[in-house]
Design goal:
single chain, about 170 residues, Ubiquitin-like (UB roll), alpha+beta, binds FE2/S2 (inorganic) cluster, 5 strands, DNA polymerase, domain 1
């Protein structure tokens, strides 16, 4: 099948490649770009493991063809750390609050939570739960993921996160 040339910005770097029209964006990211932090859980738009940020929106990259992302500005989990390589507030939150077990959902969760906090820097617990509704975790039961996002929101405001009394 004839291949099509695509270019896009990924984690701040200009990248290009040849793809078949049917190539999913997640496959382009993982196989052509070797950015394997973006996971594949279902390939049917259900789990959110493949979530990346495209032009300021959370997108499930198994739902989009690579050619549809031509010219886009994409951030993957590999682009989520601070510029100096230290952990972002969200990454630190997942670590401190035990927001992961197997870690399979974690890249998608963090990328999604990043956009959620960009749109709403001080979300309520209900808003966090609604905001990550498209991302499935089979391990943690979400409680610690919610705390991790609350931790990041608090840190961004310069305050220490205090867990609500149970
Ligand atoms: S792999 Fe894309 S939503 Fe599950
Ligand atoms: S930590 Fe295992 S699926 Fe979320």
């Amino acid at each position: 099948m004839a291949k099509i040339h695509v270019t896009m910005k990924v984690n701040g770097a200009e990248v290009e490649g040849l793809v078949e029209p049917r190539t999913l964006l997640v496959h382009f990211i993982r196989e052509n770009l070797q950015l394997t932090g973006t996971h594949i859980g279902c390939e049917t738009t259900h789990c959110g493991a493949c979530t990346v940020d495209i032009d300021g929106m959370s997108v499930k990259s198994c739902t989009m063809f690579a050619i549809q992302a031509n010219g886009s500005d994409i951030t993957t989990i590999e682009g989520m750390a601070n510029a100096d390589g230290t952990l972002s507030h969200l990454q630190e939150g997942f670590r401190q609050m035990h927001g992961l077990q197997c870690g399979y959902c974690t890249p998608g969760m963090i990328v999604r939570a990043h956009r959620l906090l960009q749109e709403n820097p001080a979300p309520t617990e209900d808003e966090i739960r609604a905001g990550i509704a498209g991302n499935i975790c089979r391990c943690t039961g979400y409680q610690n993921i919610v705390k991790a996002i609350q931790y990041a929101a608090a840190k961004a405001k310069g305050v220490e996160f205090k867990e609500a009394a149970e």
